[in-house]
Amino acid sequence: MIASQNTPFYKVISLFIKSVILFFSFYYIYDKLNHAPLILDLSTLFSSENKWFTLFIVALMFVNWGLEALKWKLLIAPLEPIGFKSSLKGILCGITMSIFTPNRIGEFAGRVFFLEKADKIQASLMSLIGSFFQLSVTIIAGIFAFFILEKKYYDFFQIQQFISTNDLFFLIAAFILFAVVIVFILFRNKNTSEKFKKYIDTFKIHSGKNLNTIFNLSMLRYIVFATQYYFALKVFGINGGTILLFSLIALTFLVTSVIPTFALTEIAVRSGVAIYFFGTISTSHASILAASLFLWIINLAIPALIGGVFVYKLKFFKE
Fold first, then answer.
1. Which helix (H) or strand (E) holds 66?
2. Of 270, 284, 292, 300, which has the maximum CB count within 10 A?
3. How far apart are CA 108 and CA 131, in angstroms?
4. In angstroms, rounded to a whole number, what is the distance separating the alpha carbons of residues 252 and 233?
């Protein structure tokens, strides 16, 4: 049984946890921003030809997290109906908690512990559903991008000397089918204990219509941050055909989404992946790094700083 948060001891523990979260979040952001001037040239961002693009990229930050707040509001509604404002606060709190954690796994905790009544495990599973849809969109877009590059720009990555794109497509399809079959078997297992049935049933709460809406919101979010990346590359002088750039962006998102990273190496990994892909069309590694860092600041650092305001409203123990 979880003790009441009103107990003085648990109030102190709760305050300590929140303070630790804020310390590590803010220190991590400070450490990265302290080195930003070595990579990011502000005069480039706000030059006469780029300032409107820069403002557009910043404006899309609000659209990006607004869509995620709508998605979370819809996801959590069956367990605890919340308004858009509360949903957005939970999202921002999640960013604050996740920015220094491996693969930003702390993001779900900020959302879940911001809730008042919902079962924390069920709420975590709802967050997992949202993450699954977002990852699915990333994977689908990445696969299409790969085939576009291989077909439109014949053997772009020169892999056909190892395996044909048709064979690769077959292997990917087989893997997805295998995963679907395994999940179906687990859900159909009638011997599941009552203890876990409640949580398994969480995956069945939403109607097909709701799930379709969640998937559409995930696609819109993907389009938003892909558009941000496209204009950030343009601002820093990385040029190429629209199809080519969006394809490389999709592959960059795909790889950075599936590679395990620790907080200390996340930016380095993201930058390395970006250089690997965009280095095929540009030798200006500094510009590629600048675009990647700028997006990190816009989409993660700034929202994390804003989310820090709401961290002290997190509820780690029952009232």
1. helix 51-76
2. 292
3. 9
4. 13
Buried/exposed 75-92: b ≥16 CB within 10 Å, e otherwise: bbeebeebeeebbbbbbb
Query: Which token pair is 234?
Result: 């343009």
257-301 pLDDT tens trace: 877 665 555 667 777 888 888 888 888 888 888 888 889 889 989
Strand partners, 65: none
pLDDT in tens, 49-101: 888 888 999 999 999 999 999 999 999 998 889 999 999 998 998 888 888 77
Where do the domains of the chain lie? 8-30+45-139+210-313
User: Tokens 């123990």 sit at which residue?
Assistant: 317
Tally of residues, the chain: 319
Burial tier of 139 (Cβ tally within 10 Å: 0-12, 13-18, 19+): middle
Query: By the 8 A CB rule, do 18 and 265 touch?
Result: no
- Top mean pLDDT of 37-41, 112-116, 245-249 is at 245-249
Please state the rounded mean pLDDT for residues 21-39.
80
Give the Cα-Cα-Cα angle 165, 251, 28 (nearest 5 degrees).
150
- Please give the share of the chain, as a percent, with pLDDT higher than 90: 22
CA angle 97, 118, 188 (to 5 degrees): 100
How far, in Å, CA of 85 to CA of 70, rounded? 10
Task: Give the pair of three-digit tokens for residue 267.
Answer: 């930016």
Report pTM. 0.82
Chain-centroid distance of CA 170 in Å reads 28
